């Protein structure tokens, strides 16, 4: 909530000074995203545009996953040298193909509830993988994740295996 307030207050200040197109958060895109890509495009918009132009676009010709992971790594370092930032941003980077796979293989088969299920999936991902950002301590992060039985990691492992099995079958 405090981020939303700060960014919207800043946007109002820009508008009052005659600047436009300075929006830095799209709340509906963040809260109702169905993918990590959508979520990151709605959050800290100007910084994400800069990261995309300066890092992702320069690396994507090699490999999209690698480019994405390196961009998330730069974002983690941009926030500061802390294991919590590194864990969160790299977790999101690693999760992108997993969320894509689940959306494609499973959730898209139930068209009428796809948006609802994919949003619920994103809520669980964000809740789970954002905790290191706020805790900023590896030991305490692991304690929190242990308290919820590492559901984010287990989900990623399960979906990764599902993805590999589906690739072999097709």
UniProtKB/TrEMBL annotation:
The keyword Transferase applies. Keywords: Acyltransferase, Membrane, Transferase, Transmembrane, Transmembrane helix. It is found in: Membrane. The chain crosses the membrane at residues 64-81, 87-107, 119-136, 148-165. GO terms for cellular component: membrane. It comes from Nosema bombycis (strain CQ1 / CVCC 102059) (Microsporidian parasite). One of its GO terms (molecular function) is acyltransferase activity. It is a multi-pass membrane protein. InterPro entries: LPLAT_7/PORCN-like, MBOAT_fam. This is Lysophospholipid acyltransferase. It comes from the Eukaryota. The keyword S-adenosyl-L-methionine does not apply. One of its GO terms (biological process) is lipid modification. Its main location: membrane.
